[in-house]
Design brief:
Strand content: 15-25%
Oligomer: single chain
Number of domains: 2
CATH superfamily of the largest domain: Formyl transferase, N-terminal domain
CATH topology of the largest domain: Rossmann fold
Helix content: 25-40%
Number of helices: 7
Number of strands: 7
Order of helices and strands: EHEHEHHEHEHEEH
CATH architecture of the largest domain: 3-Layer(aba) Sandwich
Radius of gyration: 16 Å
Length: 189
């Protein structure tokens, strides 16, 4: 059994889709939900699915040893960032080479980087007059949203689309493709 830890900071809609996708799998188990915000929706999702949680705090997360021992003690094989807003520390990246991926709500390399998350991304895409947006699933490295891209999917932007409408289109892509891409990534590794 391969164990996945999902890191999330918010409501957890992507985490829930991933959990549902792998429920009953003979190969993959969602072993741990790691969250940096007490009261985040993803913690309730974990509780509803009887998945262990780890609430982390920033100073320890940024320390040289970080939470690596916690992950190793739980036999975590892969890490999935699903709306996690902190940059991963080097010790975790080094311990999980090509075994940490992230999803970003735009077509990287555009509209990525520090501070580019959630509605901010959709507002920037629309302000630039783009005709399409989408999702990017990529490896995590020491920089925000700069790891090699594994998968992208696009959606069109129609005249009159608001950031909220674009967010709905992008969420639909995330929910459709993220679990499938995770499964293929695990098979390939």
């Amino acid at each position: 059994m391969l164990n996945i830890a999902i890191f999330a900071s918010g409501a957890g809609s992507n985490a829930e889709k991933i959990i549902q996708y792998f429920k009953g799998s003979a190969v993959v188990q969602i072993r741990l939900i790691v969250c940096n915000k007490p009261g985040a929706g993803v913690l309730s999702i974990a509780e509803n699915h009887a998945i262990e949680t780890l609430l982390i705090e920033k100073l320890h997360f940024l320390a040289p040893d970080s939470y690596l021992a916690e992950l190793k003690n739980r036999h975590i094989d892969f890490i999935v960032l699903a709306g996690f807003l902190w940059k991963m520390p080097a010790c975790i990246i080094d311990a999980y080479p090509k075994r940490i991926i992230n999803i970003h709500p735009a077509l990287l390399p555009n509209y990525g980087g520090k501070g580019m998350y959630g509605m901010r991304v959709h507002e920037a895409v629309l302000a630039a007059g783009e005709k399409e947006s989408g999702i990017s699933i990529h490896y995590v490295n020491e920089h925000y949203d700069e790891g090699n891209i594994i998968f992208q999917s696009k959606c069109s932007i129609e005249p009159g689309d608001t950031p909220e409408i674009l967010a709905q289109k992008v969420h639909a892509l995330e929910h459709k493709y993220f679990p499938e891409v995770i499964e293929q990534w695990i098979i390939d590794n």
